[in-house]
Amino acid sequence: MITFRSVYKQFGSKILFSNISLSINPKNRIGLIGRNGTGKTILLKILTGGEDIDRGDISMPSDLKIGYLSQEIDINCCKSPLEFVLEPFSHLLNNESVIDKIALCKDIDSKEYKQAVANFDSFHNELDIYDTHSLPSRAKSILSGLGVPDSSWDQDISNLSGGYYMRVLLAQLLLTEPDFLLLDEPTNHLDMDSLIWLEKFLQKFKGGMLVVSHDRDFLNRITKHTMEIAGSNITQFSGNINLYFTWKEEYRASEERRIKNLQSKIIKTEQFITRFKSKNTKASQARSKMKQLDRLKEKLPEKKSSLKTIHFHFPKPLRSGSVPIKFDNVSVSYSDINVLNNISFNVDRGDKIAIIGPNGAGKSTLLKTCFGMVKQNEGAVEIGHNTAIKYYSQHRLDQLDSSKTVLETVSDIMGICDKPRIQSLLGTFLFSGDDIYKKVSYLSGGEKSRLSLAILLTDPGNVLLLDEPTNHLDMQSVECLADALLQFSGTILVISHDEYFISRISNRIFEIRRGVFRDFPGTVSDYRQYIENGYCDTESGPSKNNTKGSTKETEKEIRIRMRRVRKKIERSIATVEKNIMSIENEIEQLKNSLLEKNNESNYQKLAEINQHIEEKNAIYNDLLHKWEILQQKLVDITNR
């Protein structure tokens, strides 16, 4: 067991852990959650010995082999990805030196010879333990599963992007097979293909793990225990994230009832004492009640400062045309590399589209082309009437001016000097007091993400292009962002690796793979099932590893899902038709009101009725447009 005894840790002026005592079973699979800044990464570093505690004691088995994946990417070497992944086993793979030492010893009775033989025996034991002959093939399998292109395996690792750096680090860690994994946001930079592969790998992993992630669905699939850091304390729970949140809500409600009952008893006891303490016949009872009152008050929990959370909504945007963005046979190339090939689609007003596919397939390029940052080589991109597009880049944090304060950053973008208004906006994103005067260079990743959201809120337009908006946000902030986007009446195209987030907000899916684009006919969970069944590889089409039987089975499952999608569309059509009939009746009633004698000379009333008729007609036209889209989708599904 890993045991904490009265552990105290302070970071700057903030107390992270206040006299924590707990035990962690290194065989358990644990999800570690908590808001940004509560000390999740610090806890992992303490377990690796990379961070000291201020007071207390931590003990763990001396032979426990811990593997740690940090959020901070640091690879300083000139090796290739494959060489780097195999580096922990280089002494086994390059075995000439061990054999040479035996060969150089002439005297078989010498200490040198005996030591060389002992080293050789130990060396052979390690060869058996790590199955050295299969190490290169296992390393390649892990790199492939994590989506590192095989064309880069023999190139200099410095040529890789930060996202692929992280995958190579993870690949090395997984190959070493430690007893206990410490993973700090391992899903960052992973596309859904690689995420699913990692989930399957971790589900088969024989050791334990402590995993920090803001991806709720990922934690639900791979963990069976939960730890939450909040208020300088750590809560442990036997169950995954969903079960923990259910228990937490029930516990909170139970505590509220208990406290309410206690407060009621305290009030009644105080009333009794006030009423009878000066009466001789009741004085002894009053004194007894005073002792009872003290005991009741001791049962009340200490008042805790309520945890602040961001909460915001987007202002109602200007109404765009019915088709804000249209691609007609659009192709985009970088140098000689064709990224988007002859793609066509309409984005309808009110669509919330999740863009999914492997990294490097062109997802970000698609958003940049919509925004006009990248120009197409062929085809036409049409931006609809009254369309105001705002782009939220995945590199937005790097684009902030580090020399400016939080207040200056927002003030410059808004172009106003209304300090109270800016303070109110920043307060919504938890920047208050002296925080607004902090330099951007001193902000954490989470704080920079919140600042970027505040900037976006100053003028969101009516079409949002969001590239990995949940990066560096904790679970509560992701929930809040999802709620705000659900209520946003404009149009959204979003790239995200957070499956829980996109399943909450999206009503349509674009799939992009190398040379392939399609409007996927199903939900996010349907798409996950599609990937899990191996129906497509990293390029496109059925997986080469699929047998004939498994392909048939997958096709059957896809037909079943298509039937479900068709039924869902049919139900949507029925709902829209019902709404159309309702609006038609309302318009008819309003028109009849225009003809009523009571309203003949009431010009204000007539103007109001006409205004209502115009509003209802606009809704009616929207419903008709939606009905036409759904009918076309139904035709497309039926013809598949």
Walk me through the topology.
Layout: E1 2-11, E2 14-24, E3 29-34, H1 40-48, E4 55-59, E5 66-69, H2 81-86, H3 90-93, H4 96-104, H5 111-129, H6 135-145, H7 162-176, E6 180-184, H8 192-204, E7 208-212, H9 216-222, E8 225-230, E9 233-237, H10 241-276, H11 283-299, E10 325-334, E11 337-347, E12 352-356, H12 363-371, E13 378-383, E14 389-392, H13 396-399, H14 406-414, H15 419-428, H16 445-458, E15 463-467, H17 475-487, E16 491-495, H18 499-505, E17 508-513, E18 516-520, H19 524-532, H20 548-594, H21 603-638
Parallel strand pairs: 3-7, 3-8, 5-6, 6-7, 12-16, 12-17, 14-15, 15-16
Antiparallel strand pairs: 1-2, 1-4, 8-9, 10-11, 10-13, 17-18
Helix pairs in contact: 4-5, 6-7, 10-11, 14-15, 14-16, 17-18, 20-21
Task: Spell out the key features of this protein.
alpha/beta, 48% helix, 18 strands, 6-stranded mixed sheet, 640 residues, single chain
Q: What does this entry look like structurally?
A:
It is a single chain. The protein is of the alpha/beta class and 640 residues long. The chain is 48% helix and 18% strand. The protein is built from 21 helices and 18 strands. The strands form 4 sheets. Strands 5-6-7-3-8-9 form a 6-stranded mixed sheet, sandwiched between helices. Strands 14-15-16-12-17-18 form a 6-stranded mixed sheet, with helices on one face. β17 and β18 form a beta hairpin. α6 crosses α7 and α14 runs parallel beside α16. It is globular, with a radius of gyration of 31 Å. About 3% of the residues have low confidence.
